[in-house]
Amino acid sequence: MTAIIGFDTATEETVVAAMVGGESTFEFRSGPVEGDRPAHSSELLTAVEQAVDSVGGWERVGRVVTGVGPGTYTGLRVAIATAIGIALARTTEVAGIPTLDVMARSIHIARGAEGDGPSIAVPALDARRGELFFAAYDRGGSELHPASVGSPDALAEVVSRLGGSALVAGPGAIRFRSELEALGLELAGVDDPANHLLGSAICELGDQEDRNGQGPLEPIYLRAPDAERWNRERRDGD
């Protein structure tokens, strides 16, 4: 039985996991100390090797799955470059999976364990510039609203249009908590596990037959990186 290694660095956290036959053998999550920058570059490879050791070595690994965003430009490049490096160095199948898909599955897993899971999961990531990356999914993981970038008001409008019991969770829900609460949305508590990506969710989704290991290793940005925006503004100002 082959193993799956999953990881994601689209948010400030470095998340890595391993799974064999649907059973988790390794789960790692690490975020920066307040005021520090994310340590994706120094943490990811070490955690991946630990995940591989947990399943008995690279010869047991049949697939590597990485989150491809949306998220921070630097974070996405770290994970994708690592996945490409693995693909070049080994015969292991490598695939990408949208980070919002993983965040939604993480929400349903966290709340499902409590027996009060929402009918709609709305994963929200901090997109900076006063905006969030968000989407909406039902309990089965089907997309109800595609990955988008927008203000808290835009997110609230989508939730209102969908109806049903919707839970907003993730780093963006923490970052914009006061604004989202004022809009009447149901949010996961600040310390709720639903706010964190689960590495096992990456592995689980990556093991689905319909993905077949073919997800592209292309970053999902939803908007131009800051450097590109600044260059364009500078050109326009000349």
What does the model show?
- This protein has 238 residues and is of the alpha/beta class.
- The protein has two domains: 3-99 and 196-228, 2-Layer Sandwich (Nucleotidyltransferase, domain 5); 115-195, ATPase, nucleotide binding domain (Nucleotidyltransferase, domain 5, 2-Layer Sandwich).
- Helix content is 37%, strand content 26%.
- It is built from eight helices and nine strands.
- A five-stranded mixed sheet has the order 3-2-1-4-5, with helices on both faces. The protein has a four-stranded mixed sheet with strand order 8-7-6-9.
- A hairpin with a 2-residue loop joins strand 2 and strand 3.
- Helix 1 packs across helix 2.
- The longest helix has 17 residues, at 73-89.
- The radius of gyration is 18 Å and the shape is globular.
Q: Kindly report the name of the CATH homologous superfamily of the largest domain.
A: ATPase, nucleotide binding domain
Total domain modules = 2
CATH topology of the largest domain: Nucleotidyltransferase, domain 5
Mean pLDDT score: 90
Q: Terminal Cα separation, in Å?
A: 60 Å
Unreliable runs: none
**What is the CATH class name of the largest domain?**
Alpha Beta
**CATH architecture name of the largest domain:** 2-Layer Sandwich
Structural class: alpha/beta
